[in-house]
Structure formats: structure tokens, C-alpha cells
Amino acid sequence: MNRIAVLTSGGDAPGMNACIRAVVRGGIYHGLEVIGVRRGYSGLVAGDVFSLSSHSVSNSIQRGGTMLKSARSPEFLTAEGRKKAYEQLIEIGAQALIVIGGNGTFQGALHFFEEHQFPVIGVPGTIDNDLSGTDYTIGYDTAVNTALEAIDKIRDTADSHERIFLIEVMGRDSGYIALQSGLAGGAEMIMVPEIMLSTSEIIQTLKQRKTGSKSSSIIIVAEGEQKNTAARLADQIRHQIDFEFDIRVTTLGHIQRGGSPSAQDRLLGSRLGLGALEGLLMGKKNVMVGLVNHQLTYTPLKEAIEQKKPIHRDLLRMIEILRV
Ligand code: F6P
Questions:
Q1: Going edge to edge, which strands form the sheet with 163-169?
Q2: Contact at 8 Å (CB) between 142 and 119?
Q3: Span 259-305, pLDDT tens digits
Q4: Which of 128, 130, 141, 265 is catalytic?
Q5: Does the fold of domain 141-258 match that of domain 3-139+261-306?
Q6: How far apart are CA 206 and CA 208, in angstroms?
Q7: Probe residue for ligand 1, chosen from 179, 257, 305 as the CB with the greatest number of ligand atoms within 8 Å
Q8: Which DSSP string corresponds to 116-135?
Q9: Measuring from atom 1 of ligand 1, which residue has the nearest CA?
Q10: What is the ipTM metric for this complex?
Q11: What is the mean pLDDT of residues 300-323?
Q12: What is the C-alpha to C-alpha distance for residues 254 and 315, in angstroms, rounded to an integer?
């Protein structure tokens, strides 16, 4: 093997640049040329590629976003689009492909491998932390800290005005960001897609807090598959609540995807980037590189996507115990 390609796809995540840097510099160390693909699978189908040198990735480890740009490619969802991508890889002489992204990225990679048997290895890069086969995904730690900073700020004003705040965080169908930012931010309740509280349970808890003279509350709401989850929930509470309480909603949104990566995400990105490259050299393909209990692991892509990562119920229990 003497030439490989690398791309980032799907939602960007802080630490992706650290990962690209590790792939490039690992490649140089092992005598490989690394070709960067711009705009994910869209760029691959279009042949938008360039050679990456050590210099191309300097001064990037501390930067959020992805220097390769990212996109969600409708073309790669089709067999025809994937065939074009394969032809581009053959034309540039790449013998393997590293894809950094999340669930959708790996779905595409899996189809691509099954159709063309082209060696591909996935690196988990998503703030959602929803992939099996790794304890954490690149970008998750930074996103949790960004959400936490916002929660702390909202708590100040919630407390001053004695209000209930519903704060919606990202994570698609995974409650990881909600759970960890909520716990760290001392939230009174956390709503995750995996375990939903009913509106009457929420109102009951708010009532208890009010009689116990707790005048403000923070409820963290994971966005879930459907958008505006927190706004809809706030409406339901307003309709059913039979005591005076001022309710506000804040949706944190894409702020959670940006910013300089945390030390954890820089380290994870670097470790997994090098792990992906060295995995390819060991002959691994159609797998995702991950870190489990601090050890590098390689999990079949299918498993990484299909096995639902369990939410820690003991953490949800902690919320109830600690909010009293
Ligand atoms: O997968 C990462 C993520 O940020 C999810 O948490 C969120 O639901 C989605 O991407 C938003 O996607 P987009 O940036 O395309 O709106």
C-alpha cells in the first residue's frame, strides 16, 4: 500500500482536524501518500481531491470544524454514485479509504465496501456518541462542555427570575449529550429518547419542588428524531400545569458542534486517526476503529451502526437522588 484517501462526512465534530493530522503524519511516518477528499462523499464522487503534506495539517490540532469540509451526499446514497466514487479512487491510485464521521457516513461506507470490496475503515467522528465499539466518539467531549457552559449561564438567569427552563441539546436519537451535560450542570430533570418521562411526572416533580421552596428548575431535553422537542414539551406542560410557573425554552443548536476541541477530543482524534491508518496497514477493512477501556479496537462497521449503545440508567437514577 502506498496511497490512501481520507474524508470527513456528515455533521462536523471538534477533533476531526486532529484526526486528519494524525492520518497524514502517520502516513508520512509509514511512507504512504495521503490524499484529502473535500466535502465528504460528494467530493469523492466529483473527484475533488488533493495531496496532503505535513505542512497542510500544521496549526490545525486546536481548530474546530474540519479542514476537509463536510457534507451529507445524496448521490452516495445511490449505487450509481458509489460506483463513480470507486472509479475516482481507482483513478487517483488510492488503495484504501479512511472515512471520519458518524452513523450515516458508516452506512455509506458499508454499502460501498459490500459493492466494490474496496478497503475502507471508519473513524467515529460525531458529537452524538451513538456508535457501538468505542467508549467515546470524536467531538462528544467538547460538545458536552459547550452545552455545560450554556447550562451554567442559563441557570443564573433561571434562578434570578424563578423560572423553569427547558434546554434542548443535540444528539439526534441518542441521549448521551443530554445525560452528561445535564448531570454535570446539576439539572433537575433530563429527558432522553431512550427513557422518556411523562408530562404528568414532570409536573409532579415541579410541584414537589415548588412546595419544597425550590423556585427554579432546569430540564435538559435531548432533541430526539423530531425537532422542537423542548418547545412541544413546554407547551404540554403549560397546558397541564395547575400552578403559577414561568416557563422558557432555549435550543442550543449548532453552537454544540463548533469551537476548539477539548484536550480529550484532540487526544482521541489523534489516537483514532493513527489507529485507522495502522489498522489498514495490518490489513483491517470494513471496520470502525474505536477506543474501549483505553485500548484500540476494530469493530465491524455493521455492528458499530446497528448495535444500540446503551444509556447508563444508573446516571438517570443519580439525577433523581441529587436534585432533592
Ligand atoms: O449528528 C450530529 C448532529 O449535530 C445531530 O446531533 C443533529 O441532529 C444533526 O447533526 C444536525 O444536522 P444538520 O447540521 O445537518 O442540521
A1: 189-191, 217-222, 163-169, 246-251
A2: no
A3: 999 999 999 999 999 999 999 999 999 999 999 999 999 999 999 99
A4: 128
A5: yes
A6: 5
A7: 257
A8: H---EEEEEB-TT---TT-S
A9: 11
A10: 0.98
A11: 89
A12: 25
Which of 46, 63, 85 shows the shortest CA–CA distance to 12?
63
Domain spans, the chain: 3-139+261-306, 141-258
What is the grid cell recorded at 70? 463536510
What type of residue is 104? G
Distances (CA, A) of 80 to 74, 109, 205: 11, 14, 54
Average pLDDT over residues 44-50: 98
Residue 230 C-alpha to ligand 1 middle, in angstroms? 16
Per residue in 83-134, pLDDT tens?
999 999 999 999 999 999 999 999 999 999 999 999 999 999 999 999 999 9
Class of domain 141-258: alpha beta
Catalytic-residue membership of 265: no
User: Which residue type sits at 68?
Assistant: L
**Three cell numbers, residue 67:** 479542514
What integer is the mean pLDDT of 2-10?
A: 98
**Residues 272 and 19 sit within 8 Å (Cβ to Cβ):** yes
pLDDT digit string, tens, across residues 295-304? 999 999 999 9
Asked if residues 167 and 150 have their Cβ atoms less than 8 Å apart, the reply is yes
Looking at domain 3-139+261-306, which of 2.40.30.10, 3.40.50.450, 3.30.70.240, 1.25.40.880 is its CATH number? 3.40.50.450
| pLDDT at position 54 | 98
Give the type of residue at 66. Answer: T
pLDDT-derived band at 76 (thresholds 50, 70, 90) equals: very high
